[in-house]
Amino acid sequence: xxxxxxxxxxxxxxxxxxxxxxxxxxxxxxxxxxxxxxxxxxxxxxxxxxxxxxxxxxxxxxxxx
Length: 65
Description:
Blueprint (H helix, E strand, L loop, with lengths): L1 H14 L4 H20 L4 H21 L1
């Protein structure tokens, strides 16, 4: 019965689309930040720091999982 529950859970995860909007908005805001840093060189340092911070946070959380 445990394996059957795991298969149902996996099927529900693959068909769940509730987080799709959040991912799309996150990607769009990242692209806007990259475009703005390419156009306005003064903010490129701060955008780079933000992306580095996000990358290190994601790396730490991936190691804890």
